[in-house]
Amino acid sequence: MVSNDDLGAHVKRGLPAVLVGASLLGFAAVFVKWGMLGGASPLAVGLYRMIIALPIAFFLARRAAYLRLDSHSLWGMAAGVAFAGDLMLWHRSMLYTSAANSTFIVCGLAPVWVALFSIVFHGLHYRWLGWLGQGLCLSGALVLALARGGKGRRVGHGR
Predict the structure, then answer these.
(1) Host H or E run for residue 108
(2) Residue 153 domain flag
(3) Does 158 fall in a domain?
(4) How many Å apart are CA 31 and CA 145, to the nearest integer?
(5) Which residue segment(s) compose the domain that 23 sits in?
(6) What band does 156 get if pLDDT is binned at 50, 70 and 90?
(7) What DSSP element (H or E) covers 125?
(8) Tens digits of residue pLDDT in 84-135
(9) Which of 99, 109, 115, 128 is 20 to 30 A (C-alpha) from 136?
(10) Mean pLDDT confidence for 22-43
(11) ∠ CA(6), CA(8), CA(14), 5° rounding?
């Protein structure tokens, strides 16, 4: 059991890490587009992102003694494969549409797909508050998708 003092220390260390991570993820599409302007393909940018991140993730997992082979680890590996597929799809979609559209379509709709799959495959039932949150997110995404005012085309060959 974690005491309140330990919990406060975790929050003080964790919140800045979450803020930095969210900021970096928010700029990921911009960095991919910059790489494309330099002549790299989106998949090459994704490959280098993973090559840089994997040794760090391996070190952190090894330090925390998470590297063992059991059913939980196999589920974790399956989640890693699904995440790699998601990243590949996101990087590939940058060739066909803008960074904002790509991020919305591939990443922004992920909670909707998770909810639908959990209903179909696990028989879960969400309360009205969960569906309200999904509806608010989708309505905000719809507003962004229909917004005019940006220069250039909204869809096309990654422009």
Answers:
(1) none
(2) no
(3) no
(4) 21
(5) 4-146
(6) very low
(7) none
(8) 888 888 888 888 887 777 877 777 778 888 888 889 988 988 899 988 988 8
(9) 99
(10) 84
(11) 100
